[in-house]
Write a structure and sequence with these properties.
The protein is α+β, with helices and mostly antiparallel strands. The protein contains 11 helices and 5 strands, in the order αββααβααββαααααα. Helix 8 (about 160-170) crosses helix 11 and helix 9 (about 175-185) packs across helix 10 (about 185-200). It starts with a helix and ends with a helix. GO terms for molecular function: DNA binding.
């Protein structure tokens, strides 16, 4: 983060990490510098579900090239309404951030990190800088994947004992019907448990939930 700020003359940056791509936006203890420190409470309370870089067009860019920027996304067509609202009302109207860029990094255990870069100047990062950041994404990911893995306990910490039992059985590959038999529950009750667990952890599917549980 410090090297990026020095080399590119950046002031407002953040580093979010999570067990899966979608968990990244719920990181409650990110590294933040500059205005992102002040932006964080409102972001976590209201906007993280609508983050520009969680939109399908941005996700495709991040997975394929490691970098996505607001300027590139806008030049290729309309953003989803939720992402457009995030840009207009949160980034621009509230914080005067005309430029936004994300760098995706691969972490140990299949985890993901996003470095967020923001600036009041729309032209802060041009094509040469974005090309350099794409190279950095590949190089830093190669280094980061070899780091000692951390335990993502926070996403599961708030679950009840019964919910944690359900999570473990989902991770073991059991169906709802099998979980119902194992825990002496009605299958409808298991469905409700799974839905509430997905909402609480920020996972988008049973697969993501299983990966999260297995990484601990």
């Amino acid at each position: 983060m410090e090297a990026l700020c020095r080399h590119f003359g950046l002031r407002h940056v953040s580093f979010f990490a999570g067990a899966t791509f979608h968990n990244v936006f719920g990181d409650h203890a990110p590294l933040v510098e500059g205005a992102t420190k002040k932006m964080l409470p409102e972001y976590l309370e209201r906007w993280n579900r609508f983050d520009l870089f969680g939109s399908p067009p941005a996700m495709r860019q991040l997975v394929s090239s490691g970098v996505s920027s607001l300027s590139e996304l806008q030049s290729r067509g309309n953003l989803p309404a939720s992402a457009e609202a995030y840009v207009r009302h949160f980034l621009v109207s509230t914080w005067r951030m005309e430029s936004a860029t994300a760098i995706r990094l691969e972490l140990p255990g299949g985890h993901t990190a996003l470095v967020g870069i923001f600036d009041q100047r729309a032209d802060k990062l041009g094509p040469p800088e974005l090309a350099t950041m794409r190279l950095l994404s590949r190089q830093l990911s190669a280094i980061a994947r070899r780091l000692p893995p951390t335990r993502p306990k926070a996403a599961l910490a708030g679950l009840s004992e019964r919910q944690r039992q359900v999570v473990q059985l989902v991770a073991d590959g059991l169906s709802n019907a099998d979980i119902a038999v194992a825990l002496s529950l009605a299958e409808d009750s298991v469905k409700k448990y799974v839905s509430r667990i997905l909402a609480a952890t920020g996972c988008q599917s049973r697969m993501e939930l299983a990966l999260l549980a297995r990484s601990i």
